[in-house]
What does this fold into?
Amino acid sequence: VQLQASGGGLVQPGGSLRLSCVASGWTEEHYTIGWFRQAPGKEREGVSCMSSRDGNWYYSDSVKGRFTISKDDVKKVVYLQMNSLKLEDTAVYHCAIDRAGSSWYLCKHGMNYYGKGTQVTVSS
It folds into this structure.
């Protein structure tokens, strides 16, 4: 399984970015896919995850109302639209995928496959 994230960059507080992740090599019909982030000196945090089987999604409290996860099954791409960015959103963002399961559980406890991250820096 290969996951390639892109779309990170430098943005001012209040700005927006959209991250993309292309997944390849996944052969199971259903899956849970999501975004995790890790800032220097902090633990990895599950930001948002989505189940392909039932469409359920999870957002961490820190991003709820500002971030939106979506996917394009034809292109096999998952997106993370990030609005109203804050300084504390600065981190390396990774996409991840696992077998179909609870989006809440997998976001909280981690997934089996991660891609290389993309840096998001929010700074004035």
Summary: The two ends are 37 Å apart (CA to CA). DSSP finds one helix and eleven strands in the chain.
